[in-house]
């Protein structure tokens, strides 16, 4: 468009190159500052510059006899000169550098989209709706959510299988250590352990290669389609914005044909971009949604087939392990693996000369000391000497017959012991208190006592009793464990055996 001040500019002299005049603000006041370098420094014939400002208000027109120029789109490649009001040209810090036009265009596009959405939400601008596409988008969102969850669960299933593989391997390693080499089936156990390890490894590889990898590839196509859907939504907002702007220009009191023509051109471009994306998505979304059935069936089929094969082979290993254990049980029942039993060694009896605790009953001392006073030389005398002495004694008519060797040394040569010899041996070790009855007692019982005080046991080998309860005093299982002041006995009421203090009882 030709401006008034541009027509008044002086023509250049002949032979001088044409330098375009700097474009000024709408006030057209000239600045003494140097102008930026020209876009085309080659000489040309003088012609009035054209200004195609996409601003909201056009520059004032001059009453020029020249016809108005035809409307030219700002996106046309023929537009070489841009006015300072064009948002595509912005100085940064007065240095003369221009920001990229694409970046500025994106920023303005975002602003116009936000403005359009606000107007649509407030009801001041209409909105293009497509129910069919909305249904396609809802199906896509549901399909994407299902694919993401299926991929996540299969990956978790594979992780658990690998963990179970490690647990199975550890179990078989433990069984290999528990089964002793001489047991039946020890070699078969190692073979089954290796078979189980191979089955687990093969199963995990199949799940990874035949199920998880295809499922991941199926999932990766959704982000690309999502980008197209989002781009289609942005282009739809641009289309509504251009349509709304054209309607406002057409309804204005003083319509501007130039702006209307530009708005129509922008509307056609926005419509073409939107319809191209919309047409692509109308073909892709239904096809992708129908593909879900085959994809899910293939993934489940591959997973279940691998699992069925694994379980079938694993069951065979379990049957073999059961047979090995059953055979081992039968061999054990036969006594194949029983260890040899040894004969326990009897404890050494106490020597007859071992000093015992002094007793209060003086009548027992002769009985204990009687077998001790026999000299060893008398025990070891030959039979001839004894017979000779017997004859000598008989010849001299001794008033008192001497005891025979069998009678004197009955414990040494193994002659028959009198019935009360065990009781006498016990009396040699244990002191029988005065007043205790030793007649008519069960075997192994020395005497009986009655509790005079209540006692509560303080150890596991002791017994508790109340006042008046009766205990049968018996021998210690190991006489060397006898403790002074303690008795070993059996409580008659409960037949409980243990130790108890002697000073809490009195003999009966």
From TrEMBL:
TM stretches of this protein: none
Pfam families: BAR, SH3_1
PROSITE patterns, per the entry: BAR (PS51021), SH3 (PS50002)
Pro residues compositional bias, start-end: 33-74
Domain BAR: 118-334
Biased composition (Polar residues): 353-363
Region (Disordered): 1-102, 348-368, 394-424
GO cellular component: cytoplasm; endomembrane system; plasma membrane
Comp. bias regions, Low complexity: 21-32, 75-84
Keyword Membrane: yes
Molecular functions (GO terms): phospholipid binding
Domain SH3: 444-508
Stated name of the protein: Endophilin-A
């Amino acid at each position: 468009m030709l401006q008034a001040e541009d027509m008044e500019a002086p023509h250049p002299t002949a032979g001088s190159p044409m330098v375009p005049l700097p474009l000024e603000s709408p006030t057209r006041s000239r600045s003494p500052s140097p102008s930026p370098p020209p876009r085309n420094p080659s000489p040309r014939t003088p012609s009035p510059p054209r200004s195609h400002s996409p601003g909201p208000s056009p520059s004032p027109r001059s009453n020029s006899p020249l016809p108005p120029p035809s409307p030219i789109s700002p996106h046309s490649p023929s537009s070489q000169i841009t006015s300072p009001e064009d948002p595509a040209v912005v100085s940064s810090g007065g240095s003369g550098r221009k920001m990229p036009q694409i970046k500025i265009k994106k920023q303005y596009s975002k602003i116009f989209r936000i403005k359009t959405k606000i107007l649509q939400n407030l009801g001041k601008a209409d909105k293009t709706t497509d129910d069919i596409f909305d249904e396609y988008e809802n199906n896509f969102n549901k399909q994407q959510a299902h694919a993401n969850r299926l991929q996540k669960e299969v990956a978790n299933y594979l992780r658990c299988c690998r963990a179970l593989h490690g647990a199975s391997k550890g179990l078989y390693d433990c069984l290999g250590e528990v089964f002793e080499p001489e047991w039946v089936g020890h070699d078969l156990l190692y073979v089954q352990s290796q078979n189980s390890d191979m089955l687990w490894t093969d199963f995990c590889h199949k799940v990874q290669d035949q199920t998880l990898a295809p499922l991941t590839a199926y999932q990766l196509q959704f982000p690309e389609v999502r980008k197209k859907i989002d781009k289609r939504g942005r282009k739809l907002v641009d289309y509504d914005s251009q349509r709304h702007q054209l309607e406002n220009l057409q309804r204005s009191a003083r319509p501007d044909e130039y702006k209307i023509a530009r708005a129509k051109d922008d509307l056609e471009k926005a419509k073409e971009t939107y319809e191209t994306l919309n047409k692509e998505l109308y073909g892709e979304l239904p096809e992708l949604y129908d593909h879900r059935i085959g994809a899910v069936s293939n993934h489940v089929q591959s997973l279940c087939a691998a699992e069925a094969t694994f379980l079938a082979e694993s069951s065979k290993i379990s049957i073999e392990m059961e047979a090995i254990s059953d055979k081992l049980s039968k061999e054990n029942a036969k006594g194949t693996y029983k260890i040899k039993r040894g004969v326990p060694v009897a404890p050494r009896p106490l020597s007859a000369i071992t000093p015992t605790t002094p007793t209060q009953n003086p009548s027992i001392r002769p009985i204990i000391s009687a077998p001790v006073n026999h000299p060893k030389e008398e025990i070891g005398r030959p039979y001839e000497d004894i017979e000779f002495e017997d004859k000598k004694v008989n010849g001299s008519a001794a008033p008192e017959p001497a005891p025979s060797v069998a009678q004197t040394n009955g414990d040494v040569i193994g002659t028959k012991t009198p019935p009360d010899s065990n009781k006498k041996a016990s009396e040699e070790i244990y002191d029988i208190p005065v007043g205790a009855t030793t007649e008519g007692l069960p075997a192994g019982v020395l005497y009986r006592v009655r509790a005079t005080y209540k006692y509560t046991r303080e150890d596991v080998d002791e017994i508790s009793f109340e006042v008046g309860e009766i205990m049968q005093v018996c021998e210690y299982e190991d006489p060397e464990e006898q403790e002074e002041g303690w008795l070993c006995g059996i409580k008659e009421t409960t037949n409980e055996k243990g130790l108890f203090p002697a000073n809490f009882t009195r003999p009966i």
